[in-house]
Design brief:
By secondary structure, the chain is of the alpha+beta class. It has 3 helices and 3 strands, in the order ααββαβ. A 3-stranded antiparallel sheet has the order 2-1-3.
Length: 106
């Protein structure tokens, strides 16, 4: 009889030292700062959405630290602009301003 062994359950970060945990997740202050920058960008996008839809319909927009930093017709172009400005992709909000609602079929 060839029985498969159950995989070992993931025990998260248990058993690791504080230094090992910080090495994995990073500095909590930096995580909090990055989260705040992203939150500011979400707030800015939501508060300016109607104006952005009129000005940049069917375009990609990128917000960093609550400010519009780039917009273009293609995602690649927006990402290139972010890279040229030295803005981190990981904490930059990139959003497509779609003017036509999508139909969801369930």
């Amino acid at each position: 009889m060839n029985e498969k062994k159950a995989p070992k359950p993931f025990n998260g970060l248990q058993g690791l030292s504080e230094e090992e945990v910080l090495e994995i997740i990073g500095d909590p202050r930096e995580i909090a700062r990055a989260s705040e920058l992203f939150r500011k960008s979400i707030d800015a996008l939501l508060s300016q959405e109607s104006m952005l839809m009129k000005r940049y319909p069917q375009e990609w927009v990128a917000f960093y630290d609550g400010r519009l930093r780039a917009h273009a017709k293609s995602l690649d172009a927006v990402l290139e602009m972010l890279d040229a400005k030295g803005l981190p992709r990981s904490t930059t909000l990139v959003w497509f301003l779609e003017t036509e609602p999508r139909i969801l079929i369930v």
